Each structure stands twice: as C-alpha cells, then as structure tokens.
C-alpha cells in the first residue's frame, strides 16, 4: 500500500509579524526596462517556498535576519530586475520589468511553535507554511505597487528558523530560482563572490522575425486575443476556490518495483522516476473531475520541460528567467484506465524528445502571433533535480525545502521526500475530486 499523508493538522504556526519593509540594492543600479519573452509574459503569478534550518548557536535568528537582509541588498545589484516592478508597454502590448529599484519585500516574524512540535509533518508542505512566505506587504499604501518578491525570516522558539520566499514566476523558473538562491547564499558569507554570474538577457528567447510556426502546439490554448499596441497578455492563473491538499508518496522501493514491472513489457532504455510519477498522477487525475466517463474522451497531461539544453546554442546554465515549455501528451480515457501503465510512461518519455531547437522556436513564434496559455487536464512540475536543500548558507544547509500550498488545482508539484528519499506529489483539488483521485491512487498499488 502506498503511503499517503493526511492534511497536516497544524494550520496555525502562531506567527507574529515584527517587521515589514522594503529593501533596496546596496548601490545604485542602472534604470532600464527588461524585455520579457513570450513564456515570461504569461507566468504572472506567485510561487511561494519555505526553507527550514536547525538552530545554530553561532547564528541565532536575529543575527541571521541581519546577515540575510544584507545578503539580499548585495544580490539585488546583479539581480536588479527583482527590485523592479512590472509595467505594460502599451505601444507593444507587452509586459516589461521596469528596473526602478523600487525594492523587494522583507519580513521578520516569530513563531510560538518549535520545529519539534511540528514533528514529522515538517517534511510535508504544511498548510501552516503559508504564514512563512507572505506574498504581499500589507504595510504598503494601496497606491504603491507591490514588490515582485518578498523574503521572510521566521524564528521558532527552539532557535530554528525558516526562510520564506515568494517570487513572481515572471522573474524565473525553478532552475533560475536555484541559481538565484545559490548566489543569495554566497552573499551570506563575508567577502565571498557570487556563485555564478546570472545571465539576464531574455532576448535570447525572443520570437523570430518574421515568426515561423512549424508545429501545431496543442499544448497552448489559442485565445485569439489582439496582439500589439493596446493589447494585454493573458494570465495563466485560476480562480480561488476551497481545496483539499494532500501529499501522495511513493517510496524508493515502490518506484523500483514499478520500474521493474515496466521494464518487462517496455523498450524504454531509461525509465525516469519523474515519468513514472507523472504517469500515475495522470491516471488518477483523468477521472477526478466533474466529467462523465467517456472512453473516447482524450485527456492531456502537460509536462514542464527545461529547454536550456535543447536549443542551439544551449542557453547558459545561469540563465535567470523562464526557460521552460509545457509539452502536452494525450491519450484516450479508455487507454488511461484499462491500457498498460507502461504505455503512459512511454508516451511521457517519448513526448519529451519532441522538444527540439526548432520546436522551441516554433512555440515562441506561435505565442508572438496568437496569445495563448498552457492547455491540458493537468500540469506536472518537477522539483526532483532542483536541490534547494543542497545550498550552503553561512549558517548551514536547509534541513528541508518545499513548495508552499496555494490555490492552484491545475498544477501538481513533484518533489523529493526528505524522509526516505522517495517522491512526494502535492495535489490540490476540491474535496469530491480528491476522493476520486485518492481512490484511484490506492487502486493502482493494490493491482501491482
């Protein structure tokens, strides 16, 4: 039987906010506008994360807060766009980042809870973690634009602490966030250089002139919105509704067993853990919505692909923006429900091979001609290789890093389980859909 965590009961971490302010680059930065690619344009929503640290006698929380704040001030010089604000270029109908040094958010808070009290629930994305990564500064007047990123230091009564980060997805994707965090951590040491120089020129992913769409790109819903002067880019977001949150776990043993079963009937040269988990999530999600079963209905899973190594020349490893594309893979409900599970894994594995240099260019050109947003039943985004908990700060490495639950029911985050090295999948769905999803999850393991 697969392990399944119940929704953690500790939703209130008894957090009291002590400081809320804007912080600025420690020296003057040039005034400029940052071009945003066609993928950047549509990712205008926040991604909150939490990073937990054990108590360190050499770095009590008040010292960490001061050192972290100074590190932020230093790193906001090479990352000047993070202290800027979004603006709409009405002549082009495109969003840009105005590098105006308006500042990033900085919050200091204190929890009356200890890490031991959170206990084993610490290693799951707990509902209470939303208090550890605020997404806006309520202290700002209504007429003042909110910052694109907010950083929060929360101390626990045991001396441990959490660093919360809420960043607008327009700033960067997961790999870009890892590069930023490595650079931020490097500045927590005295007299240490940046871990790497961020590459911030997003024009490297600009559409071609003239655009040339050479693939159909069903993964994008074409909205037929106006393009050009006076237009606005669409936002890939969803409505806020009451959701249940659960973590579906697969142990290393279970993953190995599934791979062994697949290898007996599949010709996949290398079966990835992500493909296995994504296929299982797809199978469970295909029937959880308010859709009457139709064996001929086609279900589409969106897989988020890193395009850095897939374009020619390859993007710099320190590219600090969004270098991802959704890839849609589809199958009929009949095959998803009754066909071999190995086929779903094959579809996901083979589908990723479609993302070639020309495919990437074609996708960006499509979005230049016809505004669209990712379109499918469900999107699965992998944290498996990000390694946020491997980053070394002056006070040590995080004991745990995780996404913070939010209102998105159309995206599933897959991450490494800190307990046994397995995989966890964070799912957010309305209660009745969650019941169906959970039943399908357990039925799968009962049948293998």
Task: Spell out the key features of this protein.
448 residues; alpha+beta; Chloramphenicol Acetyltransferase; 7-stranded mixed beta sheet; 6-stranded mixed beta sheet; globular
What would your notes on this structure say?
By secondary structure, the protein is an alpha+beta fold. It folds into two domains: 202 residues, Chloramphenicol Acetyltransferase, CATH 3.30.559; 224 residues, Chloramphenicol Acetyltransferase. The chain is built from nine helices and 18 strands. It has a seven-stranded mixed beta sheet with strand order 1-11-18-17-15-12-13. Strand 5 and strand 6 form a beta hairpin. The radius of gyration is 22 Å and the shape is globular. The N terminus is likely disordered.
């Amino acid at each position: 039987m697969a392990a399944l965590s119940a929704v953690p009961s500790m939703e209130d971490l008894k957090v009291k906010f002590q400081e809320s302010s804007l912080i600025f680059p420690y020296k003057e930065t040039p005034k400029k506008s940052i071009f945003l690619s066609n993928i950047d344009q549509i990712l205008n929503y926040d991604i909150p994360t939490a990073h937990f640290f054990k108590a360190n006698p050499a770095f009590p929380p008040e010292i960490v807060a001061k050192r972290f704040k100074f590190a932020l001030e230093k790193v906001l010089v090479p990352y000047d766009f993070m202290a800027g604000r979004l603006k709409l270029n009405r002549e082009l109908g495109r969003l840009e980042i105005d590098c105006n040094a308006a500042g990033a958010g900085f919050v200091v808070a204190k929890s009356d809870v200890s890490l031991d009290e959170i206990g084993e629930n610490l290693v799951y994305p707990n509902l209470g973690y939303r208090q550890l990564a605020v997404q806006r500064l309520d202290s700002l007047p209504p007429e003042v634009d909110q910052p694109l990123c907010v950083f929060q230091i929360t101390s626990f009564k045991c001396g441990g602490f959490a660093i919360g980060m809420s960043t607008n997805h327009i700033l960067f994707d997961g790999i870009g966030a890892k590069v930023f965090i490595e650079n931020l951590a490097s500045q927590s040491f005295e007299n240490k250089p940046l871990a790497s120089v961020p590459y911030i020129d997003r024009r490297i992913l600009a559409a071609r002139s003239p655009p040339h769409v050479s693939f159909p790109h069903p993964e994008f819903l074409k909205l037929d919105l106006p393009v050009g002067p006076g237009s606005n880019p669409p936002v890939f977001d969803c409505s806020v509704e009451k959701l249940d949150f659960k973590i579906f776990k697969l142990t290393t043993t279970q993953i190995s067993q599934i791979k062994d079963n697949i290898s007996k009937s599949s010709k996949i040269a290398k079966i990835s853990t992500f493909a296995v988990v994504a296929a299982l999530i797809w199978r469970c999600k295909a029937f959880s919505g308010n859709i009457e079963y139709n064996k001929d209905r086609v279900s589409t899973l969106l897989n988020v692909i890193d395009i850095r190594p897939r374009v020619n020349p390859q993007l710099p490893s320190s590219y600090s923006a969004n270098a991802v594309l959704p890839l849609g893979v589809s199958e009929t409900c009949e095959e998803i429900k009754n066909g071999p599970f190995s086929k779903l894994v094959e579809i996901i594995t083979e589908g990723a091979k479609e993302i070639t240099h020309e495919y990437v260019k074609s996708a960006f050109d499509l979005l230049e001609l016809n505004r669209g947003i990712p379109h499918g039943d469900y999107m699965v985004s992998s944290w498996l290789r990000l390694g946020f908990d491997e980053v070394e700060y002056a006070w040590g490495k995080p004991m745990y890093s995780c996404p913070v639950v939010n209102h998105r029911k159309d995206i599933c985050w897959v991450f490494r389980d800190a307990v046994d090295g397995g995989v966890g999948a964070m799912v957010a769905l309305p209660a009745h859909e969650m019941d169906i999803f959970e039943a399908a999850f357990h039925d799968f393991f009962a049948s293998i």
